[in-house]
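Async update (no meeting this week)

Hi team, since we skipped the sync, here's where things stand on the single-chain job. The sequence we agreed to prioritize is pasted below, unchanged from the tracker. I ran it this morning and attached the output directly underneath so nobody has to dig for it. Comments welcome in thread, and please keep replies under the output.
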Amino acid sequence: MNIADIVSGNASINPNGKAIIEGDSGRELTWAELEKSINKLGHALTYLGLRKGDVVAIYLPNCAEFIITYFAAMKIGAIVLPFNIIFKTEEISYILNDSGARILVGSSEEVETYIISQRERFPGLEKIITVGKPLKEGIDFYSILYDAFEQLEPVECSNDDVMSLVYTSGTSGKPKGAM
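Output:
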């Protein structure tokens, strides 16, 4: 089983139903559009070298791209590492290095300020995908979706596979990754 099957199931039952309505912008995605975007990003992440069990970090505010990234990573069997958009370089550096995240999908403004400006602090981070204004040091989110395939078979996952890694608040020391 793969948790991304939830989206595929809804897309097959109600393809034109609203899957996402963004509160701030009012942008809407149907279940069919959401599934297509998830599949395209899943292919793109695989093309970039992400495999089952690898960690992909998400540094985005509440937006459709967060959901697309979350389910695309799960569909290919990757481990999702979401973290708070208000985190700064120190917290981000610790979490990314401790988790072994290889790819980050993040908001251009925050990525430029807190990650690219301190790139040497993230030695294991191989690729950065940005949502928003294109950055020369990153890969534009929508450009990598453009030529990607619209169909993607989910990776089979067992009950013991890690789906998500969430870091605790670190009240008694450094934050710890909870599976």
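Quick observations from my side:
The first strand starts at residue 18 and ends at 21.
The radius of gyration is 16 Å.
Reply here if anything looks off.
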